[in-house]
UniProtKB/TrEMBL annotation:
This is Uncharacterized protein. It comes from the Eukaryota. It comes from Nymphaea colorata.
């Protein structure tokens, strides 16, 4: 159960990083 929560948190962090990178690419 605990590892499942950590996995979801990791996926959310990765998604946030990806969206941030996409925004930065558009600005450049």
């Amino acid at each position: 159960e605990q590892s499942k929560m950590d996995e979801e948190r990791l996926l959310q962090d990765i998604g946030a990083l990806v969206s941030t990178a996409m925004h930065r690419k558009k600005e450049l």
